[in-house]
Amino acid sequence: MSMLFVLSPAMLIPREGADDDGLPPELPPGAPPTPGKDPVFTQDDVNKIVGHRQKTLRTQYESLEKNYQSLLEKTNLTENERSELQSHLEQVQTQLRTKEQQIAVDSKRASEAHQRELKGAIEDRDRYQTLFTRSTVERAIVDAATKHEAFNPTQFVSLIGDKVRVLDELDTDGNKTGRMIPVVEIDEKDAETGLYVKVRKSPEELIASMKEDIPTWGNLFKSNVARGIGEGRGAGAQGRLDPAKVSDAEYFANRDLYQKQLGIRKRRSI
């Protein structure tokens, strides 16, 4: 078990007939004491005595500072021991600082404390903003996918989640309404100009367009699965086709649509 010795600032005990620093009073040069009378000091004598006392105290505090710093360099200290030593070191260093230096130290500490509080507030704000954005985006995607009868609505979160942003809602004049909504910004070809322009779509609009893109995304929606797979909603040839599971009657009734899905082109007459 390690033992911790705390060093305290030395205290000087004056003895009878001595100054505050424990030393006999200094007499002016060439002025021997008069028997039966108290010595008389000039202002210069007093200044020398005070200066000597301050120098002695400063030397003692500097020695204590070095001792505490040396103890703090040890690696086998417990957290409580290190905290206690650091507290004593701060007290000693406070005694060594001038008034101006102490003001500067206090100002720096206050600034650092403010920065820590500000950083914590910013981190809290960002965390809650991230939670709000994530929950808003995921809810909008799952609701839209469910509405359009996706087999697995949560699958669309991984498919398009990184493309959805929560942005300010704009009115017809382009002004902010004060509401935040999930949107997707994509480049879409303008039908009139043929140029690609950036447009905003809601998750529901994006998923609806995916549902219409049968070759790419059609198998993700229930209504796009052909009757031949057993998931259809009628005798029509809607969605992808499994020819092995289509009856002859269904095939001939919907031959043109089936051939289109299978990419079969009609033979050109010669």
How would you describe what is shown here?
The chain has helices at residues 43-72, 79-96, 99-147, 155-160, 203-212, 214-217, 248-253, 255-262, and strands at 164-170, 176-189, 196-201. A hairpin with a 5-residue loop joins strand 1 (164-170) and strand 2. It is mostly helical. Helix 1 (43-72) runs antiparallel to helix 2 and helix 3 runs parallel beside helix 5. The protein contains 8 helices and 3 strands. The chain folds into 3 domains: 43-96; 101-214, no CATH class; 225-270, no CATH class.
Write out key terms for the chains shown:
270 residues, mainly alpha, three-stranded antiparallel β-sheet, rod-shaped
How does the overall form come out from the CA principal axes? rod-shaped
**First-to-last CA distance:** 104 Å
Q: Count all strands and give the number.
A: 3
Biggest β-sheet, characterized? 3 strands, antiparallel
Sequence of secondary-structure elements: HHHHEEEHHHH
Oligomeric state of this protein: single chain
Helix content: 40-55%
Average residue-wise pLDDT: 76
Query: Main sheet: which strands, in order across?
Result: 1-2-3
Return residue spans where pLDDT drops below 50 for at least 5 consecutive residues: 10-18, 228-238
How many separate helices? Answer: 8
Strand content: 5-15%
Return the domain count: 3
Class by helix and strand content?
Answer: mainly alpha
Report Rg.
Answer: 43 Å
